[in-house]
């Protein structure tokens, strides 16, 4: 009997030429048939944007040799939609992996993340999906230490599936922190970005702004969060959902008398 | 004793010249001091995108007369961050309202919505926030029937506050459906967009795509969803959260043995 390899869709938000997606493609090629549909340029901070009011352009890319690869002018979420509904129409995608993001996507950053929007789009479409990110913003970040875990986590999901409507947010500690201690299942840390805008003047005297700032952890003492895991050199895994309903708040709104 | 009017920040995703924001500004001006920071062009489908890799430009706008208004080259989430951390720095924003969106943001659409990303950004920043949307995609949509409810819902939130980490997703039925029956607190309908891409060739023979498709309701029989409310001519209110952790899935991952 011939065993069919699982079909694995790979995307990211840093663009098809980034270092992280290359590592991910190499590791996924060991366990499945890989199909790549990734943005043709960086899409960091793209959140769950989709291209509704303009056209999307796709080009076959030769950069991964025999791995069928396409570069797309759209967002990470567009890439998933196009692959699923147009390019791989009629085929079952067994796994979607997104990343490896060049930079951390823990805590509140998940909501701004193009990497995770692709994974969550997968969950919406009923595809088991994982977003991988690395805690390293250095331009020459080292992704090598993530390799043994990529296949391990992907194989776990291929074998066990995921709770319906859920995608995994996987973050790797910085390589400089030394040997990884293990993997922890966590919840999203409650935190936010304290923005500080750098206000400048253009050559015509008009003001413009660069977004900057620093992250604030609202619960630095908590032991079950993704940031705790990462600070203690564990890989963090947060199961993420796309149902945004705050069920706990339904009652207080109704009792408060907002209905009529 | 002089009563201070509440400070209300108004934004949207259809851009500062759209019909919906004008109605919202007019109604909010009746109950508070209004400050407008809205995109200078349409940002539909922008999700929770932020501008991290380029500059943001702001210009004072005269279009709302005495209401202090700015148009911003950034996304809806950028508008909230800039208003809070730069333009209104040091002042307490009592309420953030976003919209009125030209089109429905019920069910899964909340995740792609620029209107709701602004409201959720408000929740992240600790500002009570509401996103308003109208079930009408017609270019000349009529927003008039929403007027009496805008102040009513805003006043409810100003008086009662909202559960921490929560923003309201308010959708209005189409004006053509006749008199609104009332307001219902709901959960987000489980549904998705079944994409159908329209594939075309450009004048050079290269392929390009338009995203299209139709919405699929996975639970048309459910009575407690936002789509049920809207179909039955009620205004739907869904409390939305930014914590994406699927708490119910934590256990099955741990028991499945993904940790090490």
Written description of the protein model:
Two copies of one chain form a homodimer. Chain A has 260 residues and is an alpha/beta fold. Chain A has one domain: Survival protein SurE-like phosphatase/nucleotidase (Stationary-phase Survival Protein Sure Homolog, Chain: A), CATH 3.40.1210.10. The first copy, chain A, contains six helices and eleven strands. The longest helix of chain A is centred in the middle third of the chain and has 14 residues. Chain A is globular and about 55 Å long. The mean pLDDT of chain A is 95. At the A-B interface, β3, α2, α3, α4 and β7 of A face β3, α2, α3, α4 and β7 of B. Chains A, B: It is an enzyme of class 3 (hydrolase).
Brief description of this entry?
With 260 residues, the first copy, chain A, is of the alpha/beta class. The first copy, chain A, has helices at 19-28, 76-87, 114-124, 147-160, 226-231, 247-256; strands at residues 7-11, 33-39, 56-60, 68-72, 95-102, 129-134, 166-172, 182-185, 191-201, 207-217, 234-241. The termini of chain A are far apart.
């Amino acid at each position: 009997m011939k065993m069919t390899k699982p079909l694995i869709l790979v995307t990211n938000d840093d663009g098809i030429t980034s270092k992280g997606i290359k590592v991910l493609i190499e590791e996924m090629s060991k366990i499945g048939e890989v199909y790549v549909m990734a943005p043709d340029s960086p899409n960091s901070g793209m959140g769950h944007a989709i291209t509704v009011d303009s056209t999307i352009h796709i080009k076959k890319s030769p950069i991964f040799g025999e791995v069928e690869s396409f570069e797309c002018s759209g967002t990470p979420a567009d890439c998933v939609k196009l692959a699923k509904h147009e390019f791989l129409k009629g085929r079952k995608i067994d796994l979607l992996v997104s990343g490896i993001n060049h930079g951390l996507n823990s805590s509140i950053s998940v909501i701004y993340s193009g990497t995770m929007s692709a994974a969550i789009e997968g969950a919406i479409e009923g595809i088991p999906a994982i977003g991988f990110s690395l805690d390293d913003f250095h331009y020459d970040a080292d992704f090598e230490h993530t390799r043994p875990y990529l296949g391990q986590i992907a194989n776990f999901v291929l074998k066990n599936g995921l709770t319906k409507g859920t995608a995994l947010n996987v973050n790797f500690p910085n390589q400089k922190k030394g040997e990884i201690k293990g993997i922890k299942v966590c919840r999203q840390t409650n935190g936010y970005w304290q923005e500080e805008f750098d206000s400048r003047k253009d050559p015509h005297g008009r003001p413009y702004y660069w977004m900057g700032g620093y992250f604030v952890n609202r619960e630095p003492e908590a032991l079950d969060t993704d940031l705790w895991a990462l600070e203690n050199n564990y890989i963090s895994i947060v199961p993420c959902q796309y149902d945004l309903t705050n069920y706990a708040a339904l009652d207080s709104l109704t009792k408060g008398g907002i209905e009529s």
